[in-house]
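lol ok so funny story. i was supposed to be doing the assay writeup but got distracted and ended up predicting the structure for this chain instead. priorities right. anyway since i did it might as well share w the group, maybe its usefull for someone
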Amino acid sequence: MREHIHCVARWIPEGVCHRALKAEVEVVDGKLNELLWDLALYRHAMQRTVDALWDLDKVPKKSRAHQMFYNILRSHGFRAHVARNIYSHALTLVESTRKNKGSKPVIKKLSARLDYQDARVELGKGVVRVIIRDKWYTLKLKHGGDYIWRFKELRWKEVHVKYENRKLYVSVVFESDYKPYIPRGIIALDVNLRAITTYNGSEVRRFKTRFADALTKRKRAEELQGKYPKRWRRNEKILNRIRSLHGRARNIAADYCWKIAKLVVLDARRKQHTIAVEDLEGLRESFNNKSDRVTWKLTMFAYRRLQHSIISKALECGVPVIVVDPRDTSRTCPRCGFARDRDSIGAVNIWLRALYAYVGVPESLPRAPAVKDEARQSGGTNNEGMKKAITAIHR
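and the output, tada:
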């Protein structure tokens, strides 16, 4: 091979992962206005805590933050665990913002995070009960039973309540055990603005994306803003049209990401393959060297959202995932050095890097699991499917 194969890769480790049940809800026990008032007080307390932490020269430890804020939050009627969640979340928010060299965080949404002491989840009845200060509220899930049934055997950890666009939503975070199977092959994904290309060692497949459709909606919204530079903020009809176009653009991208993720993951599980994707670290920084037009197109190129959808679905289905170095994957053919279709070459190179990360290359550590004693006695193992993938590069 003319091209040096980079073998920098990482695996999604097995262990406990989080899944979320998200649904619109309605208040069936209690008053909506009282719940919204509690959410507003929660937001105000969170903002005041963030402001106090931001004025400090150094972010304090959690024990010190407890001494600073716990009694104050309790005096305003918040329950003990709610007070703890407020200053813990504020600590994390301020610390991450300073690490990324951002400006002071501003809390805009009406939302609250509640743990097992301040929430009750009854999926059999389709209700969630929450309390923020001194009153319990019963929330009825407006979702189908088939969707809720997926989470019945899981243990829940946290409940998020959010009010947005005059609708009340709840998100229940569950814990599940991720135990991926031993793969018998690899499916590599190369994502582009107009197509997603997959390669499994013998076949190249392409799936048309809808990112260009989302760009069309966003372009129309920006044209309206340019056509009415002074009126669009105050004219309700124009403003609603712009919001509708931006919302449709986001919905198109989100809907496509979940649909293609389900298609890829179920195909990988059926064939007992692992999914190979590119590492996204430094993706945003790479936009700095692009032209304004290319950067604008990349704004609706929901690569990170697509990868998040694939990994989330893979964790749900127990499909192994490997993340490889994307450097120079779309330049030349890995065999002859011939530069041709970027998508096909990219998928092949990603597949090769994932393969070499699994089986190892000269001067690298072996990646295969240890052979058990019973396998030595029988003269083989039960999972030898990777041999087919290894021979594929010699064809």
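The longest strand covers residues 15-29. The two ends are 13 Å apart (CA to CA).
back to the writeup now i swear
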